[in-house]
Design goal:
Oligomer: homodimer
Number of strands of chain A: 0
Largest interface: A-B, 45 and 45 residues
Order of helices and strands of chain A: HHHHHHHHHH
Helix content of chain A: over 70%
Largest sheet of chain A: none
Distance between the termini of chain A: 51 Å
Radius of gyration of chain A: 19 Å
Shape of chain A: elongated
Amino acid sequence: MATVKKTDAASATRLRILDAAARLFRERGYGGTSQRDIAAACGMQAGSLYYHFASKEDVLAEVLELGIERPMEALKAALDELDESASPKERLHVAVRTHLHALFTQGDYTSAHFRIMHVAPMEVQSRSVAVRDEYETMWMTLLKDLKKAGELRGDVDLRIVRLFLIGGVNMTLDWYREGEYTLDQLADQYVDFMMNGIAAN
Amino acid sequence: MATVKKTDAASATRLRILDAAARLFRERGYGGTSQRDIAAACGMQAGSLYYHFASKEDVLAEVLELGIERPMEALKAALDELDESASPKERLHVAVRTHLHALFTQGDYTSAHFRIMHVAPMEVQSRSVAVRDEYETMWMTLLKDLKKAGELRGDVDLRIVRLFLIGGVNMTLDWYREGEYTLDQLADQYVDFMMNGIAAN
DNA sequence: CCTACCGATCGGTAGG
DNA sequence: CCTACCGATCGGTAGG
């Protein structure tokens, strides 16, 4: 579990290890990162990692899980904060904005999740699928609510919409640098593209 | 150069090595694939690879380059085949369809390109940037032609459109299995989403 | 393209 | 959390 704690100090060290691992996995990939790399980034010796984690795969599994868990928690919190009168369209807008911010504030974990999930052994992947399924369900609910409210065309496949939208949003990780647009401005554009398209009226 | 040849036999072996490497890089990542893994998949010994490639990084560089070169060549060919009277919108449609097909017929190379490009040493990455820039320019041209033809809203940033669209299309690599939709049907939906959006009229 | 091998580095462990 | 170390595997080379 990502939330298990022993002592505060030990759990703080765990987090330092995970932070370093997430960053290195993102930058160099899983196979390109050694336990010695991770330990060095934390100012400790390679063998010491094994006091906190049973194996390199365990570190990976926890990074991957946090990489999807944190955006999901952020989305839950953001939707909970919304006024009950918020329209389905506003809720989708908030979701895109929240996901985009999570990609960058939890960037190392979430980048690592989307980049190296597929090289993880199946048993490691399976430790993330429950959270992932839950997150996908939340998105499907947002889209279904939009449809029920009569705001969507009747002929679109919501699953394909979700995959296309998340793909376009996640791509931001690969190119975004602060400057021209803020993340909120990007979120505005993505929702606008998705809802209204880019064709002239 | 990807097109250099010595003898036919040597170049056929090179290609077998590259095919195996692309598949393994895609499945296990770069650091998770050893030269011995690649050699074994080709039915040869690890040392023999060095008759064809100077280093593991050289194999990587060529896989990455082919992973973007092939979709680009496919796009060029597809656009050249189009009737001159083809509208900008038809040309964009053909581009999306062609890119999507290239993702799957050259899947190992192109997947490897998009998945492990960022873990490659900068000097290896730089061997692909020229092709990548050219490919991006082709997409920008398609979008600019659409705009010139008056078919696009005036307020959209074409660069963001390109990144969002390619991101959504590339995401297909992560989930597509034959069955519900053909690739052509997916391309139709993506272009429809991008041009017209999903909002009710 | 193979055999045989190099030094370096890997994930992981024992004992403290 | 460190020291010291294990066997295995790594990328790469010499010589054929």
